[in-house]
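Q: I'm building a small set of examples for a reading group on sequence design. Run inverse folding on the following structure and report the sequence directly after it, with nothing in between.
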């Protein structure tokens, strides 16, 4: 069943914010569920935040920033125009790379390990 959200264009600011959250969450080693618990936000809602599907209330933004262990000013620098452009391009490149690996039948075995051919 397709999502209605797929039919609408996502707000680039919300997408960039979600990417910034995802990047920092992963750098801290959190799973999406673990990070949601740390923020007091449901994992599925957190997934929507990271995909740029939710326009957050300030109270939730501050919960997330606190769980990321950064100052709000540091977090919001990720949303400066030049950094936002870098985040979106890096995410698109990662998605394109994953698609190419899948088409080529190559999968990554573990973080930092070499890709292997799938049968």
């Amino acid at each position: 069943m397709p999502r209605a959200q797929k039919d609408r264009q996502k707000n680039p600011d919300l997408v960039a914010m979600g990417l910034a959250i995802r990047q920092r969450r992963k750098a801290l080693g959190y799973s999406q569920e673990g990070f949601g618990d740390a923020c007091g936000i449901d994992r599925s809602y957190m997934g929507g935040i990271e995909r740029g599907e939710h326009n957050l209330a300030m109270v939730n933004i501050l919960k997330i920033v606190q769980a990321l262990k950064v100052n709000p000013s540091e977090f919001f620098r990720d949303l400066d125009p030049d950094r936002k452009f870098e985040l979106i391009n890096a995410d698109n490149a990662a998605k394109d790379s994953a698609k190419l690996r899948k088409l080529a039948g190559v999968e990554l075995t573990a973080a930092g390990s070499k890709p292997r051919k799938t049968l």
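The chain has one domain: 4-117.
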